[in-house]
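quick one before i forget lol
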Amino acid sequence: MDRFVECANIDHFLNILTSQDISDRNRETISKLMIAEEDKLGRNLEYLEFAEKRASKCRDRLNYLRRLRDAFADGTEDRLRAEKVLANFQVTHDLVEEFCCRLRVMVSSSPL
């Protein structure tokens, strides 16, 4: 049951981090909470798979945001907003990818 709660919390934190209107302070706090939940998942391959799926979704979202930004003309208000959203989400994407890397190392170094 604890694993389910940890995974649900991570999904919830990712949803918050992908919102467009989050302050830098709140982003930092939510990121720390997400990392704490991620660390609880431990060395289990099942949770590595969970993290990999979330990372894949983040990569897809990042690519979508890049295409969306590129659809706007340079210098327009829409382009500037899209660039801000993209930059904010890039931070979230990097956190998820970093966690996957840490989890891969933990899984590969754990005894069978």
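fyi The mean pLDDT is 85.
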